[in-house]
């Protein structure tokens, strides 16, 4: 195939992030034709069908995934969504696009964090990679909540302490879900603006890398050292 062939996982992810479900269906259908057991492509295809309101097709795709991987959390979650949401709700939820560039880290401006004290499975089942979530500072912890203000999880103590200080100083941030796996959820935090107090101070330790959206590899444990913003920070037991 030509080197510039648009049928690729990166293109499929880009289409999903920009909420271009027609293109996502086209690309993922092509990927599935090449490899009928490609679970990632199947899940993306099912999700694209779900978001475009083609619920019967979405259900069929997710059921196919579960034949290949009976404990696949993405398909289990989305099948549950199919039984609880109406077509109008599914289509209406895709009213905001997130640029793939959001997942490109910038020195001092972005941070990946694994949440602690996660919400019950039935709450997490409504969360999807790429979804925007929100910070809520409470006492000595920063909680992560969805658009309906439902609790999802909390940031580790050291990162919570740092963000509470920065938020108090007038900084603002945007957060999206990076990945979901069994018993773990990671978010990407991006600095949007700085208050006068911290105008010359980066929010996070500088690093540069591309952050792919999607599932955390099966069997991979969350990296509990991803925060590390304060050397004397303590983690919650």
Automatic annotation (TrEMBL):
InterPro entries in the record, alphabetically?
Answer: TPR-like_helical_dom_sf (IPR011990), TPR_2 (IPR013105), TPR_rpt (IPR019734)
**SUPFAM superfamilies the UniProt entry points to:** TPR-like
Q: Which domain of life is it from?
A: Bacteria
Q: Where is the composition biased (Acidic residues)?
A: 228-237
Q: Which UniProt keyword terms apply here? A: Repeat, TPR repeat
Repeat positions for TPR: 39-72
**Protein name according to UniProt:** Uncharacterized protein
Q: Which organism encodes this protein?
A: Candidatus Gottesmanbacteria bacterium RIFCSPLOWO2_01_FULL_43_11b
């Amino acid at each position: 195939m030509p080197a510039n062939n648009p049928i690729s996982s990166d293109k499929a992810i880009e289409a999903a992030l920009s909420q271009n479900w027609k293109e996502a269906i086209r690309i993922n259908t092509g990927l599935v034709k090449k490899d009928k057991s490609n679970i990632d492509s199947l899940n993306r295809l099912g999700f694209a069908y779900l978001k475009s309101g083609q619920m019967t097709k979405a259900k069929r795709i997710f059921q196919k995934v579960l034949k290949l991987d009976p404990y696949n959390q993405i398909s289990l979650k989305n099948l549950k969504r199919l039984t609880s949401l109406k077509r109008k709700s599914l289509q209406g939820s895709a009213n905001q696009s997130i640029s793939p560039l959001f997942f490109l880290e910038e020195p001092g401006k972005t941070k990946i964090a694994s949440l602690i004290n996660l919400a019950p499975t039935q709450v997490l089942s409504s969360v999807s990679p790429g979804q925007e979530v929100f910070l809520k500072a409470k006492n000595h912890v920063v909680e992560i909540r969805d658009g309906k203000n439902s609790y999802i999880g909390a940031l580790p103590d050291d990162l919570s302490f740092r963000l509470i200080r920065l938020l108090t100083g007038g900084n603002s941030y945007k957060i999206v879900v990076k990945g979901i796996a069994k018993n773990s959820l990671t978010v990407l935090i991006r600095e949007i603006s700085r208050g006068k107090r911290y105008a010359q101070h980066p929010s996070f330790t500088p690093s540069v890398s591309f952050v792919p959206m999607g599932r955390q590899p099966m069997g991979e444990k969350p990296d509990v050292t991803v925060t590390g913003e304060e050397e004397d920070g303590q983690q919650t037991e």
